């Protein structure tokens, strides 16, 4: 029973493994021009489905209350969409002299360019008891920003490695990402009550479609005899990804807990998760568009496929530690504020004088 529960909980991770294994066994089904016709079903229908689904599920009407924390939102968005990719680029200049597969290194750069995820950062912030409203706002707002900024960052840091012209990339992004997202938001307005009542499984729908995209991406890989992925590079990438996550989590913690930062402990929790987590749901479809027809697309996708479960695993392990820090920090702040409140209150002064025997 425990095994079944575990499998039900981690079905998406199991699905990724099965999708890659299925692509290895029979790559001809999911290649371009194959029975699945991924050049149509994946490039247009699957990607549009994911973003229509995102449009339906994004509760933008609840985000207005979080708008007031401008400093917090600026910190998260600048960190995740500017500092993160720029730091990864500098780090990769050092790694370029190592024997690590160059396409996996390019994949690491794509991870840095991705927007925050819609779900994992929010779930972990909620589990700790952090600023959930800020996490929801930055995940949703970051996703909207990512639609425009992520393709620009990919082209800036990786150059013209795509075989598709720049105008074609953005026209396809507009038709398969922006339009379905807007339509999803419009439809949501009319059926909002029904959605709130029924609570459709938006996450499961997007994840299922994503498995199809992953499957067809790896079908292209395994049908290409020129692609060779060495285990040494893969192990090193795994270690690097965990190191990057831990380093950036520590960095955001240090920045947001400085005396003059102005952030509460609950804000720090939202910052740690929202600034360091990256979206697989938005990332894989974008890579599919920006690097359409690229023979090394699947190798470029590998670091993002590793980063996704790594961020959930690492975040889940650190939840108790971060929670105990937040609770103790909040208690300390409360204790320092109480004497100040008493000094400003005549009744409080009286009680303090009685307490100290005056």
Automatic annotation (TrEMBL):
<feature type="transmembrane region" description="Helical">
    <location>
        <begin position="202"/>
        <end position="223"/>
    </location>
</feature>
<keyword id="KW-1133">Transmembrane helix</keyword>
<dbReference type="InterPro" id="IPR016833">
    <property type="entry name" value="Put_Na-Bile_cotransptr"/>
</dbReference>
<comment type="similarity">
    <text>Belongs to the bile acid:sodium symporter (BASS) (TC 2.A.28) family.</text>
</comment>
<keyword id="KW-0812">Transmembrane</keyword>
<feature type="transmembrane region" description="Helical">
    <location>
        <begin position="70"/>
        <end position="91"/>
    </location>
</feature>
<keyword id="KW-0739">Sodium transport</keyword>
<comment type="function">
    <text>Does not show transport activity towards bile acids or steroid sulfates.</text>
</comment>
<feature type="transmembrane region" description="Helical">
    <location>
        <begin position="103"/>
        <end position="124"/>
    </location>
</feature>
<keyword id="KW-1003">Cell membrane</keyword>
<protein>
    <recommendedName>
        <fullName>Sodium/bile acid cotransporter</fullName>
    </recommendedName>
</protein>
<keyword id="KW-0333">Golgi apparatus</keyword>
<dbReference type="GO" id="GO:0000139">
    <property type="term" value="C:Golgi membrane"/>
</dbReference>
<keyword id="KW-0813">Transport</keyword>
<dbReference type="InterPro" id="IPR038770">
    <property type="entry name" value="Na+/solute_symporter_sf"/>
</dbReference>
<keyword id="KW-0472">Membrane</keyword>
<dbReference type="GO" id="GO:0015293">
    <property type="term" value="F:symporter activity"/>
</dbReference>
<keyword id="KW-0769">Symport</keyword>
<feature type="transmembrane region" description="Helical">
    <location>
        <begin position="169"/>
        <end position="190"/>
    </location>
</feature>
<keyword id="KW-0406">Ion transport</keyword>
<feature type="transmembrane region" description="Helical">
    <location>
        <begin position="268"/>
        <end position="291"/>
    </location>
</feature>
<dbReference type="GO" id="GO:0006814">
    <property type="term" value="P:sodium ion transport"/>
</dbReference>
<keyword id="KW-0915">Sodium</keyword>
<feature type="transmembrane region" description="Helical">
    <location>
        <begin position="235"/>
        <end position="256"/>
    </location>
</feature>
<keyword id="KW-0256">Endoplasmic reticulum</keyword>
<feature type="transmembrane region" description="Helical">
    <location>
        <begin position="297"/>
        <end position="322"/>
    </location>
</feature>
<dbReference type="GO" id="GO:0005886">
    <property type="term" value="C:plasma membrane"/>
</dbReference>
<feature type="transmembrane region" description="Helical">
    <location>
        <begin position="41"/>
        <end position="58"/>
    </location>
</feature>
<feature type="transmembrane region" description="Helical">
    <location>
        <begin position="136"/>
        <end position="157"/>
    </location>
</feature>
<dbReference type="GO" id="GO:0005789">
    <property type="term" value="C:endoplasmic reticulum membrane"/>
</dbReference>
<dbReference type="Pfam" id="PF13593">
    <property type="entry name" value="SBF_like"/>
</dbReference>
